[in-house]
Design a protein that fits this description.
This protein is α/β, with parallel strands linked by helices. The protein contains 16 helices and eight strands. Strand 3, helix 9 and strand 4 form a beta-alpha-beta unit. Helix 11 crosses helix 12 and helix 14 (419-426) packs antiparallel against helix 15 (431-450). It binds iron/sulfur cluster. Iron/sulfur cluster binds at residues 59-61, 63, 67-68, 70-71, 76-78, 84-86.
Length: 501
């Protein structure tokens, strides 16, 4: 067990390197020392200065920008035998008075540094910069030394191709990009709903469900291999939905798991080319939640914060991560997931702020069953002045059966169902009785959410029960979308039949 970090979940990076024997020996020495101290994985992109000297790479997902949706103070969602690395980071940063240091947006690792030593690299970087910090200033001018120390490590951990910071970056455009954004800007209570992508190859079921929901909801979310299980992908489902007769706008979910940064850029650009304007960026469920056989361990190249930062810069600054300019910039209304029920609200609010600073314009949350805990989270966001910068759509799941309630409470990371609700479902009688009780609970929650200041709408996740959504909206007297027609002209493409000379 390392002295300053939880145990690492995966072994250190150790690529075969053609280096002189002395350098290999030095790297082995550094690996041994940092292994004992920090459980270091030798990622070569050290951010310990920012993370209260707890190595974030000990997290099973390798998240470098905060905890995941299923983290709890007691344990890691992936390996319950160990504490959550990020919870330890927040805890120690708070004790050290460095919580706000955690707002800086860290880069994904530069793979060419993985497995290399960092100490000699750091000294070389310091010499090449030709400026402080200088040890002599510790006694002569402590403030100068501290400022230069912080700047040095900032420059070291923020490469030119990333330039992460702790500032809010508002979107650099004026007109709404999507129907969802246009409706949210009106100030009405906006409803989105989830449609489960099909297991098979036919999109007919998507068209059917889009028809049920059109006129009731503004947009439909399509999950992206949720729970690490394969289905029709989110981009294809979104495209089928938008081009179906119903013409319902889609929210394409884009998770980082199973995708390198190159594929994320390519998929997001492909979505823009297809006319998909809403993208919800997620880190993704760990592969351990999927069916066996499990894929190989390292499936996370980026996390949700990094994806948001990268896509926002592609849209607003017109550059790929590698610096190549983008001639025709993509148009995306970017969203993120919110987790009111994982770690304490003050920590979750830091994570939410980081996502908003990176580029999240709307947040859809985990389902709300415990209203009081949800409002604690909302208050924590308000304390950080976030509610004016983002649209909040709390999640709602109408429970279809007591079995579903027990499953979600026991097995779905980030979902908490109070015992009183489980008891109501358990005592609701037969299948029909349970469904009616689930609807009653959902309507009670909607009533509370409708009257909660700071919310901009609601996201209904009636998974495999989408037909219930219109009934919920009617019985709860929720408003219908104001803008329902696609306001954005499609790109004019001229088909040429003759090859230019
Ligand atoms: S709970 Fe999530 S953030 Fe925390 S260590 Fe586990 S995978 Fe990482």
């Amino acid at each position: 067990m390392p002295i300053f970090s939880p145990p690492r979940y995966q072994p250190p990076f150790s690529p075969v390197q053609r280096e002189p024997a002395a350098m290999r020996a030095f790297t082995a020495f550094e690996r041994a020392v940092k292994g004992v101290l920090f459980g270091c994985r030798m990622c070569g992109n050290c951010i310990l200065q920012e993370t209260a000297f707890v190595c974030p790479m000990t997290c099973p997902k390798g998240l470098r920008n905060g905890l995941c949706g299923g983290a709890t103070p007691e344990r890691c969602e992936v390996d319950p035998s160990r504490p959550c690395t990020w919870y330890v980071i927040y805890n120690r940063a708070e004790k050290m008075g460095r919580l706000d240091k955690l707002l800086e947006i860290n880069a994904p690792i530069d793979g060419s540094r993985a497995g290399h030593e960092t100490w000699l690299n750091m000294i070389q970087f310091w010499r090449e910069r030709g400026k402080g910090p200088h040890l002599r200033d510790i006694l002569r001018d402590r403030d100068k030394f501290d400022a230069e120390w912080d700047q040095f490590f900032y420059d070291l951990r923020q490469p030119d191709w990333w330039q992460g910071d702790a500032l809010y970056h508002p979107p650099a455009y004026e007109e709404p990009i999507s129907l969802l954004e246009a409706n949210l800007r009106t100030g009405t209570f906006v409803i989105t709903a989830e449609i489960a992508p099909p297991l098979g190859a036919s999109g007919a079921i998507i068209c059917k469900k889009a028809g049920w929901l059109k006129g009731y909801v503004t947009a439909a979310n399509f999950t992206d291999n949720a729970s690490a299980s394969a289905r029709m992908n989110s981009m294809a489902s979104s495209q089928i939905c938008q081009s179906s007769g119903a013409g319902l706008e889609a929210v394409m979910q884009l998770q980082a798991r199973d995708r390198s940064r190159v594929v994320i850029e390519a998929d997001a650009m492909g979505a823009a080319g297809l006319g998909i304007r809403n993208i919800l960026c997620l880190s993704g469920d760990h592969q351990r939640f999927g069916p066996s056989p499990m894929v190989k361990p390292d499936q996370f190249d980026m996390d949700a914060v990094e994806v948001l930062w990268m896509l926002r810069r592609m849209r607003d600054e017109g550059v790929y991560l590698d610096g190549r300019p983008i001639k025709r910039r993509p148009q995306w209304f970017l969203g993120a997931a919110g987790s009111p029920f994982g770690a304490p609200p003050k920590y979750e609010a830091i994570r939410a702020e980081k996502k908003i600073n990176a580029g999240a314009q709307f947040i859809q949350t985990q389902p709300i069953f415990d209203y009081d805990r949800f409002t604690d989270w909302l208050e924590a966001l308000d304390k950080r002045n976030l509610l004016d910068k983002v649209y909040i759509l709390p999640g709602l799941i109408p429970l279809k059966s007591n079995r579903a309630a027990h499953f979600m409470d026991d097995d779905v990371p980030g979902v908490v169902i109070p015992p009183a609700i489980i008891k109501r479902m358990d005592e609701a009688g037969d299948k029909e009785g349970q469904q009616e009780e689930g609807v009653a609970i959902a309507l009670e929650t909607i009533e509370k959410l409708k009257n909660t200041p700071g919310l901009n709408g609601m996201h209904i996740m009636a998974v495999h029960w989408e037909a219930i959504v219109p009934r919920l909206i009617e019985e709860a007297d929720l408003p219908r979308p104001i803008f329902q027609e696609w306001p954005i002209p499609k790109e004019e493409v001229v088909v040429e039949t003759a090859v230019p000379a």
